[in-house]
Design a protein that fits this description.
heterodimer; A: 218 residues; alpha+beta; Arc Repressor Mutant, subunit A; Glutaredoxin; 4-stranded mixed beta sheet; 33% helix; globular; B: 442 residues; Rossmann fold; Ubiquitin-like (UB roll); de novo design (two linked rop proteins); 4-stranded parallel beta sheet; 17 helices; 13 strands; elongated
């Protein structure tokens, strides 16, 4: 039927939709009116690790309005807790003097902030147009197969990661590798499992500029 | 012959460090010259260079800087390094290999705008690039190039890297500002434009990485000489990212006004042996597609607009003749559905419906009427939202349906027959008999 049946779109992160197609979970549920919404956590009650507190306070000092630190602070908490768990959000809320509800709404907006328990090591496979024209859907499926059971890895298809020159590509905890040949997938999966440097020869950081003018001598 | 400005010596080892960058002329006379000019003169110089924003909209950089109100107040400069447009990866290479060029450009832009606080909003996925930028900023601070009274002048500038967390919409300037303020990245109603009320309600200048990195070179060459490069209304060089079905995907620096064929076939090697260009996105996946017949169009802002599309971020995605247009359309639409922030109904629902209609086409449940319906949905998204994300889906999808309608119709028919055959194969049919027994539901 289609000569490009490999552009399946399978394995993509589903757009979160809840009841009646809403994007807000539980919008249809009755609110418990007997309970007050969670307020700003009491510093005397919530324990925040000292290093996390110091990091968040450093972020807050960089901006005229400390609320700007919400995303960096949530990321810092996620790095320690593995995801933006209620505990992580409460700790951030305590330091930033915001409500947990506000921070949860921020965390829910961004793809890299995880609002569900997942593996703490993010591995993203770009499945956008340029990469999928070059076999990204297959790469994602193969990696899913090879990494089955690796619970510490959060493997997911991702929108354009800005590395279409090395399509198909994978971001292994922030390290971009590509183009990944089919034959290299098992080796890459092994390295991801073992936490080794992924495909060192294929890392983006080592790739020279393709423009012939860039290499020309003066 | 294309002049190499931004990518000159870009692969030189250690260019990301202050010493090598200085040895290449960075932070030298040109920066002093810029900081010694009166602000109005500097802004006029930027206007005269004809530099248009490199992020997508192509608005004159100098004009944008001149919109900022004068007077004593907190003003901000924000560098948009969110680079999430599918197919675009030029800023990544620039920031990774020559972060000081961006910092120097930001010092100049901040001075021109009268801003004393600056932020680089970099997408969260660029981990290594953010680290490189942060290291470069530390170096520049230590050398007195940032901070209070930099280089002994009256100008002060604080600069921080702010990492996003994965949202395409944060590349839209007002969405970016909300995100930078620690909120969900929803775009704002315009006007007021960021030049009047931007970050923390203060006047804000927002520019793309490439635009800012070009400023030191404009000062060095002089606006007049810079304006001589390229063609009228599209001056200077442009970094372009080529990807998809080409043999040498990558970033290239071209003089605006180069023929598209020379870019796709000459620089990037074209699609492989025995294949040809079926269609291409000239400016990221948000731009209406062009076909293999449009390869001789000159690659500049005005020619692209005349051809009914746009130069956008300068990201060319090439699709060869072996690929089905329906598959590309579905991938494109899925992306925008995922990234729609949900604030405006036409975009939130329109992108979702378009994906559903394309899925119907793929599964053989569609009729040619769906194409008209899809076109009408797309038409009703365009211009009806706070930002252009919805338009960014509607325009390419609309252009694909218009230019490849025959293929869509054929696909619908083939998929429908295929689905029918599969349905019949699942039924108990006596092939020798002329009557078909359809099992009744119990």
């Amino acid at each position: 039927m289609s000569s490009t049946g490999h552009l399946t779109g399978k394995g993509l992160q589903a757009v979160p939709r809840f009841q009646h197609g809403s994007r807000v979970p539980g919008w249809d549920d009755a609110a418990d009116l007997t309970k007050d919404p969670a307020g700003v956590p009491d510093p005397a009650v919530v324990e925040v690790p000292a290093d996390l507190r110091a990091e968040i306070e450093d972020f807050m000092s960089r901006y005229p309005d400390s609320r700007s630190a919400a995303i960096p602070a949530l990321r810092a908490a996620q790095e320690r807790h593995g995801w933006c768990s209620p505990e992580a959000v409460e700790q951030v809320a305590c330091v930033m003097r915001l409500t947990p509800g506000y921070l949860a709404s921020v965390a829910g907006f961004y793809d890299q902030l995880e609002t569900r328990p997942v593996g703490h090591r993010p591995v993203y496979v770009c499945t956008n147009i340029s990469c999928s024209l070059r076999g990204a859907d297959n790469l994602l499926a193969e990696l899913q197969h090879e990494l089955a059971g690796a619970d510490d890895v959060n493997l997911r298809g991702f929108e354009c990661l800005g590395a279409c020159d090395i399509a198909p590509m994978v971001s292994v905890e922030g390290v971009y590798v590509g183009p990944v040949d089919e034959a290299e997938i098992p080796e890459l999966a092994r390295q991801i499992r073992a936490g080794e440097d992924p495909l060192p020869a294929k890392q983006l950081i080592r790739r020279p500029c393709q423009d012939p003018g860039a290499a020309a001598p003066e | 012959m294309t002049q190499t400005i931004l990518f000159k010596n870009i692969d030189e080892p250690g260019l990301a460090t202050l010493d090598v960058y200085r040895a290449r002329g960075g932070y030298g006379d040109r920066l002093r010259k810029a900081l010694s000019m009166p602000r109005d003169v500097l802004v006029d110089e930027l206007k005269a260079s004809g530099l248009r924003g490199r992020g997508g909209a192509g608005f004159s950089m100098g004009t944008k800087a001149s919109f900022l109100p004068k007077g004593q107040m907190d003003k901000y400069l924000v560098c948009n390094a969110d680079e999430s447009e599918p197919g675009t990866f030029k800023d990544r290479e620039l920031m990774q290999k020559c972060p000081h060029m961006l910092i120097e450009g930001m010092i100049i832009a901040a001075y021109a705008a009268g801003a004393n606080r600056a932020f680089i909003y970099i997408r969260g996925e660029y981990v290594q690039q953010a680290q490189i930028l942060e290291a470069a900023i530390e170096e520049a601070k230590a050398a007195g190039l940032l901070g209070d009274r930099l280089l002994g002048t009256d100008t002060s500038l604080s600069l921080w890297v702010h990492r996003g967390a994965g949202a395409y919409i944060c590349g839209e300037e007002t969405g970016l500002l909300d995100s930078l303020e620690g909120k969900r990245g929803n775009p704002r109603l315009k006007p007021p434009f960021p030049a009047n009320q931007g970050l923390y309600q203060g006047p804000t200048l927002i520019n793309n990485v490439e635009t800012l990195a070009t400023l030191p070179h404009i000062i060095e060459m002089g606006a007049e000489n810079y304006a001589k490069i390229g063609v009228q209304n599209s001056t200077g060089t442009k970094l372009i990212s080529i990807s998809g079905h080409v043999q040498k995907p990558g970033n290239y620096e071209i003089e605006l006004g180069m023929s598209s064929r020379d870019i796709i076939y000459g620089l990037a090697g074209g699609p492989g042996e025995g294949r040809s260009v079926k269609m291409w996105f000239p400016g990221g996946s948000s731009s209406p597609v062009l076909t293999g017949e449009d390869l001789d169009i000159s690659y500049d802002f005005d020619s692209m607009a005349k051809a009914g599309t746009m130069l956008g971020s300068g990201a060319i995605i090439v699709v060869d003749d072996q690929t089905s247009v329906v598959d590309v359309a579905l991938k494109t639409a899925q992306f925008y559905r995922h990234e729609s922030c949900g604030k405006c109904t036409p975009c939130r629902e329109g992108t979702n419906w378009t994906v559903k209609m394309l899925e119907r086409i793929k599964s053989g449940e569609a009729t040619p009427m769906d194409l008209d319906l899809m076109a009408s949905v797309c038409e009703n998204i365009i211009g009806h939202c706070l930002c252009v994300l919805g338009d960014a889906m509607a325009m390419p999808i609309g252009s694909m349906v218009k230019k490849f309608r025959g293929e869509f119709e054929e696909y619908i028919e083939t998929a429908r027959l295929q689905a029918e055959r599969e349905l019949l194969a699942g039924l108990d049919i006596d092939t020798d008999s002329t009557t078909i027994t359809i099992p009744q539901a119990a």
